Amino acid sequence: MNVTSESKADAVREMFNGIAHRYDFLNHFLSLGIDTIWRKRAVACFDDLVGKSVFDIACGTCDLAIQIAESDSTVKVSAEDFSPEMVIRGQEKVTALNLQGRITVKAGDALNISHPDEIFDGVTCAFGVRNFAELETGLKEMSRVLKPAGRMVILEFTTPENRVIAAIYKFYFTRALPFMGGLISGKPQAYSYLPESVYAFPRPEKFISILENSGLSHIKFTPLTFGICGIYTGVKK
Ligand SMILES: C[S@@+](CC[C@H](N)C(=O)[O-])C[C@H]1O[C@@H](n2cnc3c(N)ncnc32)[C@H](O)[C@@H]1O
Fold it and tell me: Per the confidence metrics, is the pTM higher than 0.90?
């Protein structure tokens, strides 16, 4: 990693450490609870999870990892995040649900994944890739640990195409959300970073080509909720 990437990674890690105590509440409050439905749609992208292993990177407080584990009683999930505070909260939730036998939570960096090549049947990332200091490095790492023909599922914010929806979204996302998020978390910068990072993220066509270059085929993009969010799926070549 170069110096710029390192300082971006440090800033992102510190930001998530700072909001971890309020992260779940704010996530559900600011998305009006829709984030849970989006994660459910992401889990449904796996046709069959029986006996499978899934790697959830940038797992945050483990909402997606938990939904994956709850969708099938035989699936095993490895959940990792580079923010120690998010990992602590994720671990607490996993233990409270008595899922520690099926979800392993630990600190890990998407840009330098500590697992060998091609060991997971599935790889997921919800609202994480946008924060990677080096997007392509992270995606190549995610692809590296996926078995051939294994599925990658990425959930990420997008910007709506419809002009009216886009205008309403822009107001909510760049004005109302940073104000409320900042007030509740005490970290206004984190909630102005959110819209900035979404607007700076590649549009679906571009992101699909980046996924292709990361070793995936059969890439599909499914927009959700007026295109404010979307699911990318791909299969390891
Ligand atoms: C918006 S949160 C999403 C958390 C969770 N996946 C969810 O659905 O709520 C983004 C997460 O990405 C993590 N993250 C960003 N860059 C990372 C990296 N290089 N390696 C691991 N985690 C990273 C942050 O620490 C943060 O927890």
Answer: yes
